[in-house]
Design brief:
Number of strands: 6
Strand content: 15-25%
Shape: globular
Strand order of the largest sheet: 1-2-3-4-5-6
Oligomer: single chain
Mean pLDDT: 89
Largest sheet: 6 strands, parallel
Order of helices and strands: EHHEHEHEHHEHE
Radius of gyration: 17 Å
Helix content: 25-40%
Structural class: alpha/beta
């Protein structure tokens, strides 16, 4: 017997941008520069509407900073309008401003924030810029908006890169996740 095949995929991964605003020491962008930086426009994204209307989940991230996409807000609002049930993206949190937080609170299912280094010094060593205070401020604002909207979405996860010289960060990562109410805990990736 033949199995009934699904006509459309049930999950879609889309990179909205090939840009990043950091040059983390463990990231491929620290060692490789693409020939060009590109990003999806709302018009380009809408060419996928026939697929998006049929998916159950969508991820707007694979290896770049999704929030560098100029049309992120328009694209995410379109995903909300279409009614995709489960949504996800990962960010370094620097561009996660109040406007973005207002859009994603209650609408985005899962959010991962990449933080390797939980002091200003260790963050800068690993992530290339002194922006830890910006990330903390943005996570605080996101949590305030979630509280105001009475929602637990997005479910937050903190991600860090595990290397020989970051293994001592694990306790700080757990404390950071607790402080910012990361219900998905800490993810440790590797270089």
């Amino acid at each position: 017997k033949f199995m009934n095949l699904v006509e459309y995929p049930t999950h879609l991964d889309i990179d909205l941008s090939t840009k990043c605003n950091l040059r983390c020491r463990f990231c491929h962008l620290s060692y490789y520069k693409p020939k060009s930086w590109t990003q999806l426009s709302l018009d380009q994204f809408m060419k996928l509407e026939h697929l998006i209307k049929n998916v159950k989940s969508i991820s707007l991230f694979s290896k770049y900073e999704v929030l560098t996409c100029r049309d992120f807000k328009k694209i995410f609002n379109k995903i909300i309008d279409i009614g995709v049930k489960e949504t996800y993206f990962s960010t370094n949190g620097i561009l996660l401003n109040e406007k973005i937080s207002n859009i994603i609170a209650g609408n985005l299912t899962y959010l991962t924030v990449s933080v390797t280094g939980f002091t200003n010094e260790s963050y800068m060593k690993n992530m290339s810029l002194d922006r830890l205070d910006t990330v903390k401020k943005n996570l605080k604002v996101l949590n305030e908006i979630k509280k105001k909207k009475k929602t637990d979405l997005p479910k937050l996860r903190i991600s860090m890169v595990g290397m020989q010289d970051t293994k001592d960060y694990f306790k700080e990562a757990v404390d950071f996740a607790k402080y910012f109410r990361a219900s998905e805990g800490v993810q440790v990736t590797y270089f």
